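Re: weekly structure request thread

Next one in the queue (135 aa):
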Amino acid sequence: MSKKDKSLFAINLIKYRKSLGYTQEQISKELGIDRSRYGYYEIDVTPPPDILLKISSILGVSIDSLFKDDESEKIIQYPDQTMIDVADVSGIINNYSPSDFSSDTELLPDEKSLLLKYKLLSKSNKAKVAQIIDD
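Done, posted below.
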């Protein structure tokens, strides 16, 4: 299937994933699905609503932007342009103590997304986040 035959969703999904430097494997792992299943979404299969919500969260874009042809849509870029809401970071981290974490602790989807974004930050931006949390 050529690029011109793909839906806007498939084209945008590839565009946003690549703009953030993610592989299909990384996205599928975050979604909890097989890479081949995720690959179908980039070919031209629209995912179910729950997966669609997770994709928009991971990529940092609205669901609408995945379906429309709008070049003016802002793409959140990690790690070069960090756009993490400090209140979100502090709120999530300050609600936990080390005893809350065990080997079987399951993170919520927003926590997983936040941690993935943190992993993609540059060293200096990680230091900024740490400073904010420590204050």
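The mean pLDDT is 75. The chain has eight helices and no strands.
Next request, please.
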